[in-house]
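INFO batch 0412 | record 1 of 1 | parsing
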Amino acid sequence: MKAFIKGFSRLAEAIAGGMLAAIFLIFLLQIVLRYFFTPAGWTLEMIGILWVWVIFFSCAFIVRERDHVKFDIIYLSVPRRVRQVFAMIAAAAIVIGMLYAFLPTWDYIEWMKIRKTSTVRNPFTGNKVPLRDVFSIYAVFMLVVAGRYAWLFFDVLRNGPPKTELELVVGYNVVDDHPRVDGTPSEDDTK
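INFO prediction complete | emitting tokens
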């Protein structure tokens, strides 16, 4: 299973990297067309579409939970059991929020099939691309994030809260295992 997850992670990184490379190459093409030939409007729209896809695809499949920016001063200052409750409440809230919003969001994305891109065309059919196809990645993002946080909820329930950055570096639980600074001996000092 770990090999599959690692392989899928590498594939997702390659896809996201490919989209970023495409953004860069289209940007360079845009510059060349603007200064040496006739400007092409599709370059701006294509860069925007790829940027939407890079953001939501990467957040769904590449960015790990511990990589997100957090305001965790209170979380880090409480004991491990309280952190476990905090982590479970946060994970459950994200799952509930994503699933609650999914159907109305999908309804809107599906409605977007009547609207089409301004200049970008499907290279196979020549038709303008429906905006449903452009924004469908957001529905995928919602489902994957809900699944990831549902998994995190049960992982925290079984194994406790994820280690904090400081615990990963220092190697012990900062709140529960640190030596007391008020002069009274800790449990470890009395053994």
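INFO post-check: The beta strands are 116-121, 128-130.
INFO record closed
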